[in-house]
């Protein structure tokens, strides 16, 4: 496919789509009903439907009977861990193999023209972004992911947390299923904002930001403290009346859903003349510019807080003005304290 029909490439080989990044037409004033109807299918397909189905599959085939989960035992815990590891390798690996190892579409639609494997760097373990990112996901990401999963399932099995059934409260549970992505967005925005404060950024979040040119394995490349805060999103399901399937969906939304934002390509080609939009641009711009786009754009939180960057020249100018103002504020503070 000719990606230059949809965007431009600069001298360095970096691609930028013509269409600025947009936030979902939710919570906008005045309401935009037509845009909302047009946008709605993308709320479900393909990712959210896939993550919900994966939660159902886990509940049906992976999670043991409730009586077993009342007691913590290595058998079922290790089985969950092993299945999570395999699922992550298959799901993340599918993007990695096609786009980064086989490089099936070269750098067409690729935001950063270079591939991480071609740029060894001292900031990474073994100087390799891929090895570093993969190991961080496996060594702390997946154990913490599984620990939250096990803890919440154990709690449900022991009647801690308001477990309600689909038979008794179908409407509430459908509403809750629909707002799982909203819960994720608000939780992620909050923790992300907090770990961008100077001290926590230095100690915790800079690990994730080492990947300025993110690829699929970057999704779970975090400091363990960030893994902990990130996967804690499942805990809302011990406070709200919920159900283990929706709790699993919340966790899968975080764990499997991190990939699309780090895929590094604006569109993923399917066949000769079709391509799936990745919606990765908002988070790519966060990795590139750091202090913009703390959220993923489902709710216009960054617009409300003045930190949204849509990738356009205007967006760039707004960001630069904000950085200048911040610098001036810091300098004024220094002068008064001196
Ligand atoms: Zn990221
Ligand atoms: Zn960040």
Automatic annotation (TrEMBL):
Limits of the Fatty acid hydroxylase domain: 179-307
Record's keyword terms, sorted: Membrane, Transmembrane, Transmembrane helix
Main location: membrane
One protein family per Pfam: FA_hydroxylase
Transmembrane feature ranges: 42-61, 73-95, 134-157, 169-191
Top-level taxon in the UniProt lineage: Bacteria
Subcellular location: Membrane
Keyword Transmembrane: yes
Coiled-coil parts of chain: none
Protein name according to UniProt: Sterol desaturase family protein
Native source organism of the sequence: Maritimibacter dapengensis
Upper lineage: Bacteria, Pseudomonadati, Pseudomonadota, Alphaproteobacteria, Rhodobacterales
């Amino acid at each position: 496919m000719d990606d230059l029909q949809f965007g431009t490439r600069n001298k360095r080989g970096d691609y930028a789509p013509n269409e600025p990044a947009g936030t979902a037409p939710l919570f906008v004033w005045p309401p935009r009903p037509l845009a909302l109807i047009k946008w709605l299918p993308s709320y479900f397909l393909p990712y959210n439907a896939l993550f919900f189905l994966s939660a159902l599959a886990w509940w049906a085939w992976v999670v043991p009977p409730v009586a077993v989960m009342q007691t913590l035992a290595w058998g079922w815990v290790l089985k969950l861990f092993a299945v999570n590891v395999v699922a992550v390798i298959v799901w993340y690996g599918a993007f990695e193999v096609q786009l980064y190892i086989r490089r099936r579409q070269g750098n067409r639609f690729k935001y950063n023209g270079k591939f991480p494997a071609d740029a060894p760097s001292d900031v990474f373990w073994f100087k390799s972004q891929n090895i570093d990112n993969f190991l961080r996901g496996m060594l702390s990401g997946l154990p913490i992911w599984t620990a939250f999963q096990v803890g919440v399932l154990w709690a449900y099995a022991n009647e801690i947390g308001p477990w309600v059934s689909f038979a008794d409260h179908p409407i509430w549970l459908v509403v809750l299923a629909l707002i799982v992505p909203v819960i994720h967005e608000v939780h992620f925005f909050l923790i992300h904002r907090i770990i961008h404060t100077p001290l926590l950024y230095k100690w915790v979040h800079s690990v994730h930001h080492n990947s300025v040119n993110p690829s699929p394995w970057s999704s779970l490349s975090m400091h363990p403290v960030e893994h902990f805060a990130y996967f804690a999103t499942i805990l809302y399901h011990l406070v709200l009346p919920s159900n283990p399937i929706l709790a699993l969906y919340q966790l899968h939304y975080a764990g499997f859903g991190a990939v699309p934002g780090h895929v590094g390509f604006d569109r993923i080609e399917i066949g000769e003349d079709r391509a799936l939009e990745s919606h990765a641009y908002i988070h790519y711009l966060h990795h590139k510019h750091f202090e913009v786009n703390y959220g993923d754009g489902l709710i216009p939180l960054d617009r409300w807080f003045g930190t949204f960057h849509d990738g356009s020249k205007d967006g760039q100018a707004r960001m630069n003005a904000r950085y200048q103002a911040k610098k001036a504020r810091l300098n004024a503070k220094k002068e008064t304290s001196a």
